């Protein structure tokens, strides 16, 4: 999952239809609910919530929707409780897959995810079965075709970032996973606008699927996972062809 393919996926979602945008906001809304319960409803004093507000705006979510979600989560009558669960497994041809879910019913979510793996030729495994193939990093995305790369490098280092990649107008900035919100905030104060800032699993190596049938099954597995409201993020080590190459 290279940075380029990651951005293609984000761009596809941002430009998707109302149903796609609705699902994106359902997931971000759950994250906001948890963030409000943990740190309060004021983004100024809740850096995690501030990052989620920025993520929602980057996905073209209206401000009114964002405000309503925060107010609902802060209301005394809000009884929604969610827990974060990490699942690991293998897709077709042994592709490693890590799933981050935010759910109010772990039995439902586990059953659904197991079904997706079984349906599309994979296997849901135990914790640790594939995570050793990934590095845990904070990742900040900035969309700007006019960045000065030399200045970006200086600013990233000054903000506390570890490394960066700038390609096709997209900057991916890497940090310690515990520092990602702080680095994003520092860059924002320097004048940068980020699209997302969150911990991710970065594959150490990528594996191709040469068989078209198996590649199609892997793509379907990712689609089913992405379409599930309980699934926040999916990381994998498939050397996935860019959409331009598939057309």
Describe the protein in words.
It contains nine helices and eight strands. The protein is of the alpha+beta class and 247 residues long. The protein folds into three domains: 3-74, Arc Repressor Mutant, subunit A (Orthogonal Bundle), CATH 1.10.10.200; 83-132 and 204-237, YebC, transcriptional regulation domain (Alpha-Beta Plaits), CATH 3.30.70.980; 133-203, Alpha-Beta Plaits (2-Layer Sandwich), CATH 3.30.70.980. It has a four-stranded antiparallel beta sheet with strand order 3-1-2-8. A hairpin with a 5-residue loop joins strand 1 (83-90) and strand 2 (96-103). Helix 2 (18-39) packs parallel to helix 4. Residues 1-5 have low confidence and may be disordered.
Number of helices: 9
Work out the strand percent. Answer: 15-25%
Strand-and-helix sequence, N→C? HHHHEEHEEHEEHEHEH
Radius of gyration: 18 Å
Low-confidence stretches: 1-5
The beta-strand count equals: 8
Q: Tell me the CATH architecture of the largest domain.
A: 2-Layer Sandwich
Under CATH, the homologous superfamily of the largest domain reads YebC, transcriptional regulation domain
Largest sheet: 4 strands, antiparallel
Span between N and C termini?
Answer: 19 Å
CATH topology of the largest domain: Alpha-Beta Plaits
Question: Which range best describes the helical content: under 10%, 10-25%, 25-40%, 40-55%, 55-70% or over 70%?
Answer: 40-55%
Structural class: alpha+beta
Give, in spatial order, the strands making up the sheet with the most strands: 3-1-2-8
Mean pLDDT: 89
The number of distinct structural domains comes to 3
- For the record, the CATH class of the largest domain is Alpha Beta
């Amino acid at each position: 999952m290279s940075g380029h393919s990651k951005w293609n996926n984000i761009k596809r979602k941002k430009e998707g239809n109302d149903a796609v945008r609705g699902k994106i906001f359902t997931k971000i809304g759950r994250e906001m609910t948890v963030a409000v319960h943990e740190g309060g409803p004021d983004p100024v004093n809740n850096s995690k919530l501030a990052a989620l507000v920025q993520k929602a705006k980057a996905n073209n979510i209206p401000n009114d929707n964002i405000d309503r979600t925060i107010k609902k989560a802060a209301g005394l009558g809000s009884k929604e409780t969610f827990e974060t669960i990490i699942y690991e497994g293998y897709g077709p041809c042994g592709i490693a897959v890590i799933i981050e879910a935010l759910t109010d019913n772990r039995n439902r979510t586990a059953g659904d995810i197991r079904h997706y793996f079984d349906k599309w030729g994979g296997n849901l495994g135990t914790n640790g079965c594939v995570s050793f193939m990934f590095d845990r990093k904070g990742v900040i995305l900035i969309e700007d075709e006019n960045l000065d790369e030399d200045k970006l490098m200086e600013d990233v280092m000054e903000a506390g970032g570890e490394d960066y990649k700038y390609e096709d107008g997209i900057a991916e900035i890497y940090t310690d996973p515990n520092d990602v919100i702080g680095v994003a905030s520092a860059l924002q104060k320097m004048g940068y606008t980020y699209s997302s800032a969150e911990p991710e699993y970065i594959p150490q190596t990528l594996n191709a699927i040469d068989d078209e049938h198996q590649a199609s099954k892997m793509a379907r597995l990712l689609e089913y996972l992405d379409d599930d409201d309980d699934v926040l993020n999916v990381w994998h080590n498939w050397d996935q062809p860019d959409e331009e190459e598939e057309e």
